[in-house]
Design brief:
Number of strands of chain B: 14
Radius of gyration of chain A: 19 Å
Shape of chain B: globular
Oligomer: heterodimer
Structural class of chain A: mainly alpha
Largest interface: A-B, 26 and 37 residues
Distance between the termini of chain B: 34 Å
Number of domains of chain A: 1
Strand order of the largest sheet of chain B: 6-7-8-3-9-10
Helix content of chain B: 25-40%
Chain lengths: 270, 332
């Protein structure tokens, strides 16, 4: 039943996406990724004349800033698209008037959300391939990629994003808001998780917050695996932190969603 | 059998009182409701807007958890056995929602069917028969957003039947439907109960609908049951509630006026007199059917130019019953 819920929900979403795919949204996401890379390129080539400081090399482990920024923007695209769409799923049902028909059925909340996550991961992977093509002129170099470490990083990151998405989903239903909640979360993550610069440049207290967000570790592992070819063993500490945070967020999400969804039909009235 | 006892549901909402100030407001949506639905019967739930009908239906369909009270459906507890109960009940609401507009009718039914874990082959044949049943065969492969309001409503009915529920809760199902479609839906509802043995709870604003379909009726107001009985009993109350007459006479001599005022006082009815071009117009409002008495009295000493009797409305009956209930509570 759980698997059936996952597959049927993913299939339903894919059908809707292919039938009424919001092309402008797709273009908007790609352009956002493109402009992030473009602005990094301008800052790097015009302001810093193509040179990075020693501290950047020390913090990031690379002197190739453009590859650093491109990988950061890819990860951000992945984070936003999966995290955003999964977290919005129930409130979208509420707004479109289908929440009652969904909740009256014996649907598994986790099965439903997993189905959304599965579909969104597939769609975002496609978008990422397009993003790789449009950002290729900026010169992403992967001289010594460690595929096993990168794939494991993506796998654990998906679990953490899923957990965070469930929590945000609960918050959205409770506050009956999508715009403020999601934009606040994404702006903060963009600023403090090391999308375009190492988190070590941030004040200590901000770094402490960023260390509580799994994306910070995902980015560090992802870049290190792709740009420096670091192995899983050499990044064991970061992998462990990412895994622990993923479990914590996932468990918190599971506990929260059952409580919130019990009250969700009521939230429609009040 | 569905047996609900003392169901209560309160909502607490925040009311903004200033820029950063708000207070909480508690609304008692349902206040201790008892009701019973037997398999094969259609039970009506009547009430004005805000009476608690939708909240009651949402509680019975497991969407909302009651704050107090209990409900057993075929021996299963509404709260503890919610998962099993979800397989036995379904809800159809008025309006065009509750289905995915970007999917086709068939895709909608497939999706909901899979949520109920209906085996593939069984689901396929059930979808075919439901699509045929609601008359959407020719448009079943079209996206729902292209459907008319009536078609969307018919699809919603099919969705509500996808799990072959033993108990079906219909919340204003004919709301906004064209008369022929509403008639078909009523016929169909009757067949679900009488031929397929489903227990149906129906809310409606239309007394004629209730009279035509229901075996038993509950009337609720502000979350409280104010009356229950057969449609015949309810109809008789409605008939005695706020009959309105509009009468036009050519003259109203003083003697007749005196007789009229005395009669109105005797039957505890209200009236308004107005002089208009070519006569006198009288608006009468009475809790009793006094049509024949009025005609007989007025026609003896005056000429009745026109006499219009307005059919009493269910709303009037509910308001009257509610006033009586309030009066009884205050003077208890």
């Amino acid at each position: 039943m759980f698997i059936d819920n996952i597959l049927s929900t993913a299939r339903r979403n894919l059908t809707i996406q292919t039938r009424a795919y919001p092309v402008h949204f797709f273009v908007g996401e790609l352009m956002s990724c493109f402009f992030t890379v473009l602005s990094s390129f301008f800052i790097y080539s015009i302001v810093f004349k193509g040179k990075v400081s020693d501290s950047f090399i020390r913090f990031s482990g690379t002197s190739d800033y453009m590859s650093y920024a491109i990988l950061g923007s890819f990860m951000y695209l992945f984070v936003v698209r999966t995290f955003l769409n999964v977290s919005r799923s129930f409130i979208t049902e509420m707004r479109e008037g289908t929440l009652d028909s969904l909740l009256i059925s014996p649907v598994s909340y986790m099965g439903y959300l997993s189905g959304n996550m599965l579909e969104q991961t597939l769609v975002t992977t496609g978008e990422l391939l397009a993003a790789i093509i449009i950002t290729s002129p900026f010169g992403l170099k992967m001289p010594d990629i460690n595929a096993a470490a990168a794939l494991l990083c993506i796998g654990i990151t998906l679990v953490s994003l899923f957990g965070m998405a469930i929590i945000l989903c609960g918050i959205m239903i409770y506050l009956k808001d999508t715009y403020l909640s999601q934009n606040t979360v994404f702006s903060v993550m963009y600023l403090i998780c090391g999308i375009t610069f190492p988190v070590q440049y941030l004040p200590n207290w901000v770094q402490n917050i960023s260390n509580l967000i799994p994306v910070t570790y995902s980015l560090r592992i992802f870049r290190s695996s792709i740009l420096a070819g670091s192995s899983i063993a050499s990044q064991a500490g970061d992998f462990l932190m990412l895994a622990v945070l993923s479990i914590i967020y996932f468990a918190a999400g599971v506990l929260l969603i059952n409580r919130i969804m019990k009250k969700a039909p009521e939230r429609q009235f009040i | 059998m569905l047996i609900a006892k003392g169901l209560k549901k309160n909502y607490t909402s925040k009311v903004k009182t200033g820029f950063l100030k708000s207070t909480t407001k508690k609304v008692e949506a349902v206040r201790g409701l008892d009701l019973t639905i037997e398999p094969g019967s259609i039970v009506g739930l009547l009430g004005l807007n805000g009476a608690g009908k939708t909240t009651t239906i949402k509680m019975l369909s497991t969407l909302l958890e009651p704050d107090e009270g209990s409900c057993a459906i075929d021996g299963l507890d509404l709260v503890k056995d919610a998962f099993q109960i979800k397989h036995m009940v379904n809800m159809i609401a008025g309006g065009e929602r509750m289905v995915y507009w970007r999917l086709t009718a068939r895709e909608n039914l497939e999706y909901f069917g899979r949520l109920y874990s209906i085996p593939k082959e069984e689901l396929k044949s059930r979808i075919e028969s439901l699509i045929r049943f609601v008359g959407l065969q020719e448009r079943s492969e079209e996206a729902v957003e292209k459907y008319s309001k009536g078609m969307k409503q018919r699809l919603q009915i099919a969705r509500g039947l996808i799990n072959d529920p033993k108990y079906l809760f219909m919340d204003e199902p004919t709301l906004g439907l064209d008369a022929p479609i509403a008639r078909d839906l009523r016929r169909f509802t009757k067949s679900l109960a009488k031929e397929q043995g489903k227990g149906i709870l129906l809310t409606s604003h239309y007394i004629s609908e209730i009279e035509e379909l229901c075996d038993y009726v509950y009337i609720i107001d502000r979350g409280l049951k104010i009356m229950e009985g057969t449609p015949k009993e309810i109809a008789s109350i409605v008939a005695n509630c706020t009959n309105k007459y509009k009468i036009k006479l050519n003259v109203l001599p003083d003697k007749l006026r005196g007789q009229f005022e005395t009669f109105m006082s005797t039957v505890q009815s209200e009236f308004q007199l107005e002089e208009v071009d070519g006569g006198i117009e009288i608006d009468v409002s009475s809790h009793k059917d006094i049509q024949s008495e009025l005609i007989s009295m007025l026609s003896q000493q005056s000429k009745i130019i026109s006499f219009t009797a307005m059919e009493p409305k269910l709303e009037d009956a509910i308001i009257t019953l509610s006033e009586v209930k309030n009066y009884e509570q205050v003077h208890a």
